[in-house]
Design brief:
Helices cover 46% and strands 14% of the residues. Helix 9 (211-223) runs parallel beside helix 10. It is globular. The protein is of the alpha/beta class and 301 residues long. The two termini are 17 Å apart. It binds coenzyme A and magnesium ion. The site of coenzyme A has 16 residues, from strand 1 and helix 1.
Amino acid sequence: MPRKLIPSMLFVPGDDIHKLEKLWTLSADRFVLDLEDAVATNHKAMARELAVEQLNRADGQSERELYVRMNAVDTPHGLADLLAVVRPGLTGIVVPKVGSAADLQTLDWVITQLEVERGLTPGGVGLIAILESSRGIANALEIAKSTPRLMCLTFGAGDLSADLGVEVRDVDASPQRMAFIAALKAQLVVASSVAGLDPPHEGVHTVFRDLEGLRQTSEIAREIGFFGRHAIHPGQIAVIDEVFAPRPKDIEWAERVVAEFSKSEAAGSAAILVAGEFVDYAIAVRAQRILDLAGRSAPEA
Ligand code: COA
Ligand code: MG
């Protein structure tokens, strides 16, 4: 059975005790305890301790996946974050401001040492890399291929806008700017595909009460090959999950194509008609991807 991808991840500020408590009451699947930009420098140590408390609480229960967004590798906080959070209860680490393959390879080495020392499954801690600098975008392919721990890439529009000097958040964007943003995002989609990663995640929609804007911009991301999005407010989760959930009619189509194609392929033909549409290997592969995203096994013909 393929692993079903979960579309939304809710960021929770690591130093906010009320919101950390709140996460245990929300009916969402994946949370990111943020130690980075949502936490002031003089709260970093406190946030780390609170994150460890949540990870201890998550250990042994499977309903909620907890990730931690660490501070960037080249900050004074990065190593301390890793030493604290690589422990039972941690599903993965969200790595901000990834600029090169070396950034993730350095992390990989440290995490491997900690996994061995702490009796965790080697390679078990996943990584999600946020590309949010010009360098990160330019190096997307080498980053995507850097380590088998890497699960997927994320497009980080806020920091990237500052770095590029071009607004690449898609709120109120002109058609020209949307085309430029899509060209940047396409690099993540292509790099992820080459490296065999899950499709990239869209970053946050910061105007968090604007659910219609969240829906529209998530639809656009979905159309260009992204799957899933980061949330900052619980109210965003349902919209994200709905936009990225495979459509029932797409699943139905994919099941039919995969079933009929595999039957005809076994009989020696790789070009068939399904409901009036010509189906060959390319279409069958696309249909299989839809089933994979939906966590469905191939149906019997
Ligand atoms: N995680 C957990 N709980 C959250 C939450 C979050 N990200 N955002 C809001 N909540 C809780 C609130 O505490 C509140 O709980 P209550 O009803 O028990 O008081 C409830 O959900 C409703 O929240 P609301 O009052 O509408 O919003 P707010 O003004 O409290 O918070 C933000 C708005 C933007 C400050 C908050 O959503 C937030 O801090 N988001 C995360 C920011 C972040 O992590 N950024 C870094 C990644 S880019
Ligand atoms: Mg940031």
